Structure formats: C-alpha cells, structure tokens
Q: What sequence folds into this?
C-alpha cells in the first residue's frame, strides 16, 4: 500500500470498498462474464481457505480432508432445496443447517483423532475426506440419497426477499447477471468470515489455539482443556467449509462427487501455505492466486493455436507443472508464505533467534 | 491438614518401577524441596501430581481433593501450577502472550464472546493483559513483554515460565529445577523471588540439584533414590543422613 494511503486509512478503506463494489462490472466489461464467474470462485475458495486456516494455521492440526465439509454443506443444501426430495427451504434456513452439520462432522472427525498429530492426523483426515466422497458416490442405492455419480441437479438458487439470484436482474437500465448477484452474496459472507476469524485469532480462544500449536503439553499444564480446544478448532473450521459448500450448491445448481476430490483439499491447503499460514491477508491472497492463475493459463492454449497452428502443450498439463514449480520456488525463497503471519515469520527466522540467544548468554557469562 | 498429600504413590512404566510407595505431605506456606540423584523419579513424581502421568496406585490430594483421576487443566483450575525442567514456553509467542495464556484457567470468554466482543469480554481481555504485565514486572521482565519467548536469554526464559505459571493464580507452585543452567547471581535472584512468593502466601514445591540453594531455601526436603523416598525432614537433618550421603556419593561397602 502506498504511504499516502497508509496515513489515511479511512480513505484507503473507502477506496477498497468502491473497488470491491464495481469489480464485477469492470471485470465483466473488460474480460467477459466468464471472468465474473471466476471471481465468484475466488470468493468461495477464500471462504474455504479462511476456514481451513483456523484448523491448520491457528491450531496447527494438519487436515487433508477438509473438502469433505464443503461436500456436506453442498449436499445438505441439495437435499433441502431441490426437487430431489421435493423440499424447497429458503437459503437462510439451509445455509446455517449446512454449517452446523459440517461442524458436527468436524467434531465427529476430531474426537477419534485427538491423540494424533502431524503426519498421522493428516492420514486419518485424508481418509475421512475420501470416505465422504465415496459415500456420496454410492448412496444412490438401496435408497437414493445422493443420486450417485450423476450428481444432483436443479438445486434452488438463493433468493432474497422474493428476488432469485439465479435470474438476471434488471435495475435502472443495467442488467446484472446471476454471476454478479452471487458475487455480492459471496463477498458478504467472505467479509463476515474474515471478521469472525480475525476476532477469534485475537481472543482467549485464539491464544489457546496458538499455545496448542506451539506445545500441547505446556498448553495442558497452563489450564487449557486441549480436547475441547481442538474439537472447537475442527468444528469452527468445518462450519466455514459447510457454509461455502451450501453457497457452491446454490450457485452451480448442480453438484456431484467429482467436485469434492482429494485434489480440492490439497488445493485449499496449498492456498493457505502459499499465501501465509495463520495470516488472513495471506490466506486471501493465496486463494486468489491459485484460482486466478490456472484460469489465466487457459489462454496459453489459444495462444499456441494462434502462433503455432495447433496446441503443443496442453494448458492443463502446463498448469500442474507451473503449480509445482511455484510451490518449490516458494519453499526455497519464501518458506513462510507470501504474506506470512507474525508467528510464522518468526518461526522460519529461527536462526536469528539462536544467534541472538547465543549473544545474550555470552553477555551473561562476562557479567 | 497438609495442602498437598501424596499417599503411597507408585508408578510403573512396563517393567520399570519409577516410583515406589511414595508418601509425603507439603504443608501450606512452606517451601518443600525434592532432591535426589539423576533418575531418582523426581520429575516423574511431578508429572504424576500435575496429571501428565496417571499413577499406577496410590492417591494424591490437594487440600483434600483427589488429583489422581483429573486431567492437567483441571488440576491447574484447583490451584496447582508448575514449570518444566526442560523449558516449555510457547516459543513463537511474545513473553506477554505466554503469560496471558497462563490466565486461561481463570478467564471465560467463549467463541461468541470472542466474536461479538461485548463489554464483559473486553473487560476480561484488558484485565488479562494488565495482570500479565504485572507478573512480568514481578519476575523482572518488565521491558520484555513484546520479545518472543525464544529470543529471551536463558535465565529470562526460566523466569517467564514462573510468571506464566503464576498467572493461573495457584496456591501451590511446583518448580522443576528453576535454577538449572543459571549463573550464581541469577541463582541468588531466583532464590530471592521464591522467598517473596512464599511471603505472599504461596506454597512452593521445588526440585533442585543445587544442594546449597535447597538447604538455604527449603523448610523441609524429601530425598528420592531409585523411585523410593529414602529420607524426609528438616534440611539440616537430611543433609547428615547416612542414607542420603550414600545415595549421592555411593556407600563405602
């Protein structure tokens, strides 16, 4: 941020608000409606990344099955607001229920894994993520709950006060397509999530999570009920995932188990690692970059066709390659992420700490 | 009645008998020393008392309340805090934050309180911070509140551990080798701090190798060797006990 804006935070804030408000119009005019849709996905992934950041970044519990909570939220929305069961409950009932269901499953996953840490926890959570996906894939018989691999369609769009976000809105000579309408809805939820996550981080609960992450035994000896604090982290993180899942289902109108693969879990984890674990601005940046860059790389296919006459390297292969290269570069040059949290930055700068401590003890020896 | 009573406590790890039938009682207001050669079971006893280990048999009571079935955080809530032999600070949190975590057992803000931050939560946070700063001043770290725990000098880290433990408002504070690795002047300061704490009404339980410090500071000491209590009593009497001399220096036979 330029220095002039830093000194006038209110102006910077107003500028940011205006930018966020007109962004879908600018993007829609400049790049086309498809990019407004990409913008919507950026916001959805931001919501997921903020949620996973509570579990991994704050409490230090490595969760590789996070997308399962996204799936639960999405399927609950589809069950309660689609022709599948003939239920059409309003979104303000279904979304909180989805968040609660995901939170409940967060606790169910957390309870048996309380004694596990690091790699072992990662393996169990990875299994959990796959179990949920496979269940969704197979629960079309004996009782058709999920419609199996075909997925569920004709899910109700969100409608606010009789106004469906699934149809274009004509107002004052402007036509707002559904992607733009959903943009504002998702933006509202992301802002809410940022607020909640930041307040949690800077509280008694947030300190307890940080302590748990640093040293579980010392945390217990300081009066922290490590079991409850862990379960709370799982539940909070999962409920953000469930909320995002419900929004996803309403936005797409169609969900299938394919949307909830292990790759998605890893992608969200990469977002927070790349951006800067534990730090909200970093997490948001990571979510934006890892959603936008793959989309931008699609143009490489057109570019190849235009210059070489045919596609030499499939852009989707290139995506994976560049993705890998980016992660390796990051581990080498910015191991704490692009915008690291205070805590992580210190951790990766540990060598300085050792040097300082050496110096201090030398000083003591002379004294 | 004794503030802390350990009754016939035994602890086995598989075939190893780490503690065998230990009985001792710490009276309110005293400084009680626990000494013994390396591997005698002192830290194991601490871990049993503070809920990190479960005892194989026997009972531990704090002011009459049984501790042996409780979890560490419940024991802290009853007013029994501890420090660790191998310093276990939250290394990447500031000194002030470390002490604020120590207030966890005495504060109440939950998720909703944290998110909405009502008057009660704000008052609690302000109080937590103020008390934490007071404790830092008390142990001589007044100006180091914003320094990361891992960047503090060794002696300061030991002092910070004590401040963090004090933040839970204990009645009984157990210190596991609080002056290990300190230079003589730091040792003197630490001894002074312990006397002050006792003067404020705190009961101290102390594991220490520095016999001079223990003898100068403790009202009574117990000596452990190979998991058994071989002596207990006034410091002077214990120092001259032949069994204790044998345990430390080896017997002549």
A:
């Amino acid at each position: 941020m330029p220095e002039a804006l830093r000194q006038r935070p209110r102006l910077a804030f107003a500028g940011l608000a205006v930018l966020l408000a007109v962004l879908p119009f600018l993007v829609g005019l400049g790049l086309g409606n498809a990019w407004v849709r990409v913008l919507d996905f950026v916001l959805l992934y931001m919501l997921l990344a903020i949620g996973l950041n509570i579990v991994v970044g704050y409490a230090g519990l490595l969760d590789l099955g996070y997308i399962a909570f996204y799936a639960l939220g999405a399927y609950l929305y589809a069950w309660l607001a689609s022709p599948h069961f003939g239920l059409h409950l309003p979104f303000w009932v279904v979304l909180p229920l989805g968040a609660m269901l995901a939170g409940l499953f967060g606790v169910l996953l957390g309870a048996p894994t309380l004694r596990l840490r690091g790699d072992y926890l990662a393996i169990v959570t990875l299994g959990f993520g796959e179990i949920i996906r496979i269940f969704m894939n197979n629960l079309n018989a004996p009782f058709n709950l999920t419609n199996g691999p075909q997925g569920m369609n004709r899910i109700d769009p969100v409608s606010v006060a009789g106004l469906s976000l699934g149809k274009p809105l004509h107002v004052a000579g402007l036509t707002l397509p559904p992607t733009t309408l959903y943009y504002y809805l998702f933006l509202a939820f992301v802002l809410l999530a940022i607020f909640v996550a930041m307040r949690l981080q800077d509280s008694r609960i947030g300190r307890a999570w940080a302590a748990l992450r640093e040293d579980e035994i010392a945390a217990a000896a300081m009066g922290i009920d490590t079991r409850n604090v862990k379960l709370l982290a799982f539940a909070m993180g999962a409920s953000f995932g469930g909320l995002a899942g419900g929004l996803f289902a309403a936005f797409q109108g169609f969900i299938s188990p394919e949307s909830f693969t292990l790759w998605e879990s890893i992608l969200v984890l990469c977002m927070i690692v790349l951006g800067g674990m534990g730090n909200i601005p970093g997490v948001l940046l990571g979510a934006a970059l890892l959603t936008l860059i793959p989309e931008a790389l699609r143009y490489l296919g057109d570019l190849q066709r235009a210059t070489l006459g045919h596609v030499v390297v499939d852009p989707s292969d290139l995506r994976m390659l560049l993705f890998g290269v980016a992660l390796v570069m990051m581990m080498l040059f910015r191991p704490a992420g692009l915008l690291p949290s205070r805590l992580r930055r210190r951790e990766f700068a540990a060598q300085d700490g050792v040097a300082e401590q050496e110096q201090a003890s030398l000083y003591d020896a002379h004294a | 009645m004794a503030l802390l009573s350990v009754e016939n406590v035994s602890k086995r790890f598989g075939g190893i008998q780490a503690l065998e039938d230990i009985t001792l009682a710490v009276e309110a207001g005293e400084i009680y020393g626990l000494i013994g050669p390396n591997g005698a079971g002192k830290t194991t006893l601490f871990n049993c008392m503070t809920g990190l280990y479960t005892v194989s048999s026997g009972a531990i009571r704090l002011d009459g309340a049984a501790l042996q079935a409780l979890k560490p955080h419940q024991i802290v809530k009853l007013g029994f805090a501890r420090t660790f032999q191998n310093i276990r600070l939250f290394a990447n949190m500031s000194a002030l934050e470390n002490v604020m975590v120590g207030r966890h057992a005495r504060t109440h803000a939950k998720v909703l309180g944290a998110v909405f931050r009502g008057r009660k939560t704000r008052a609690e946070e302000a109080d937590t911070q103020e008390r934490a700063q007071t404790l830092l001043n008390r142990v001589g770290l007044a100006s180091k509140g914003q320094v990361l725990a891992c960047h503090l000098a060794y002696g300061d880290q030991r002092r910070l551990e004590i401040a963090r433990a004090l933040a839970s408002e204990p009645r009984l504070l157990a210190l596991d080798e609080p002056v290990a690795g300190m230079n003589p002047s730091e040792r003197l300061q630490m001894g002074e701090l312990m006397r002050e704490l006792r003067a404020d009404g705190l009961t101290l339980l102390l594991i220490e190798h520095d016999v001079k410090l223990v003898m100068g500071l403790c009202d009574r000491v117990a000596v452990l060797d190979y998991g058994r209590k071989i002596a207990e009593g006034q410091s002077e009497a214990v120092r001259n006990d032949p069994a204790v001399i044998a345990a430390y220096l080896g017997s002549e036979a």
Notes: The interface with chain B takes residues 195-196, 199-200, 203-208, 210-211, 214-215, 217-226, 232, 236, 343, 346-347, 350, 353, 356-357, 360-361, 363-365, 367 of chain A (CB under 8 Å).
